[in-house]
Specification:
The chain is of the alpha/beta class. The protein contains 16 helices and 14 strands. The two termini are about 40 Å apart.
């Protein structure tokens, strides 16, 4: 069955094209610094937002028009697989991602849920055998069902902890079976509402125990994908334990897990944490912990996770700058954890949204690489910190001084002269590069 019969293969036509169903800047085969765009960007489609989201929000019911929604239960799950791989191939995207309950409905009990998953995973595996699209990562949804009201691995209820472990065990088996490049942990309800009724130490200890069990089981079954934690500060929990990269890194180090995990960083989550997207990417990069990216953006006027498709070229440029400085994303990728707006309810809008996001990151990639090639920021930063290349600054860097020597030095100083950070000049320069590259 065909679900997108009026959509042809999406191709690159260049920035002068007026075809809304064509890439203007994303050319999969184009080489940037000797590597194809496809290999660097490693785009992925989020199964949940693309095939299961119905457009409902706190103020209205679902309004999305999806041809597969005429089915129910397991028939619906199978139709989504068929629609999914048609979409992947027409978009020519190399990866997709999913939660367990995205691909198969929960049963009356865990055994029935397993049965549903096994049936759909077998179907996905058959489709993958003739498709170029691979699994970037999978994960277990441990936040939607009422059983997770108090969390999963951090739940007050040991039965929920055990149930969560069973879901992740199954998820790791699926990851191995489908060749998933990564396995993601997003602790949507791993947090608390108030400390009045919370034993934070016990909850964090249990979370650490849970992750160690996951690491051990992955080794036991021979799954060698990269484990990723996806930080988010709030929503649905008031305060989540994986607040941001720095908080999550401290947790990993405290529980001796830093060698087993990296981070899957989402742009909109960075915003909710009070950070920029590039800040979170940079913190992960300089600590050797940048694993993958959920590519979306938030709305500055709204204080929740809007998961919009990324179209902010300034943001995509600075994000790709960090990715390139990281040497790429390795086994990770750019997964569009993004949903079309409620008003964009027609099926074709799914293609328009992904094309916009892919083009935006393609521009970001090219601009970021030119900034690196021309050493625009590197030379400025090197000059700005030049005082640490000689004299007392060099002694500080090399560890050849102490407070007494520094005091003696400071007592001899006259007026201290600083230099401008030239923020506006640098932003104008990035605008210049953006306009130059986007018109090529």
């Amino acid at each position: 069955m065909t679900y997108f019969e009026n959509i042809d293969q999406i191709k690159y036509e260049g920035h002068k094209s007026t075809n809304p169903l064509a890439f203007k800047y994303y050319n999969p085969e184009e080489k940037v610094a000797g590597k194809s765009m496809e290999d660097t960007l490693r785009f992925g489609v989020a199964y949940w937002h693309t095939f299961t989201m119905d457009g409902s929000d706190p103020f209205g019911s679902g309004n999305m028009i999806r041809s597969w929604d005429k089915f129910k239960g397991m028939d619906l799950a199978k139709a989504r697989v068929e629609a999914g791989f048609e979409f992947f191939e027409k978009l020519n995207v190399p990866f997709f991602c999913f939660h367990d309950i995205d691909i198969a409905p929960e049963g009356e009990n865990l055994r029935e849920t397993y049965k549903n998953l096994d049936e759909i995973v077998l179907m996905i595996k058959e489709y993958m055998s003739t498709s170029n699209t691979k699994l970037l990562w999978n994960t277990a949804n441990m936040f939607s069902h009422p059983r997770f009201v108090h969390g999963a691995a951090t739940s007050i209820n040991a039965d929920v902890f055990a149930y969560s472990a069973a879901k992740v065990k199954k998820g790791l088996e699926i990851a191995k079976d489908l060749g998933s490049e990564n396995y993601v942990f997003w602790g949507g309800r791993e947090g608390y509402e108030t400390l009045l009724n919370t034993d934070m130490k016990l909850e964090l200890d249990n979370l650490g125990r849970f992750f160690h069990m996951a690491v051990d089981y992955a080794k036991e079954i021979g799954y060698n994908g990269q484990f990723l934690i996806e930080p988010k500060p709030k929503e649905p929990s008031k305060h989540q334990y994986d607040f941001d990269v720095a908080t999550s890194l401290a947790f990993l180090q405290s529980y001796d897990l830093q060698d087993h995990f990296k981070f899957n960083i989402e742009a909109n989550h960075a915003t909710l944490a009070g950070h920029t997207f590039e800040h979170e990417l940079c913190v992960a990069r300089i600590n050797g912990m940048l694993g993958s990216v959920d590519a979306n953006q938030g709305d500055g006027l709204l204080g929740w996770d809007t998961d919009e498709f990324p179209t902010d070229l300034y943001a995509t440029t600075l994000a790709m700058y960090e990715v390139l400085k990281n040497g790429g994303l390795g086994r990770g990728g750019l997964n569009f954890d993004a949903k079309v707006r409620r008003g964009s309810f027609e099926q074709e809008d799914l293609f328009h949204a992904h094309i916009a996001g892919m083009d935006s990151f393609a521009i970001g990639l090219k601009v970021a690489q030119k900034l690196i090639d021309d050493k625009v920021l590197e030379e400025f930063i090197e000059k700005r910190y030049d005082s640490y290349n000689h004299g007392i600054g060099k002694e500080i860097i090399e560890g050849n001084t102490d407070f007494r020597k520094l005091e003696d030095y400071a007592l001899q100083l006259g007026d201290i002269q600083n230099t401008s950070g030239r923020t506006e000049r640098l932003r104008a320069t990035i605008n210049q590069y953006l306009l130059s590259v986007s018109s090529e």
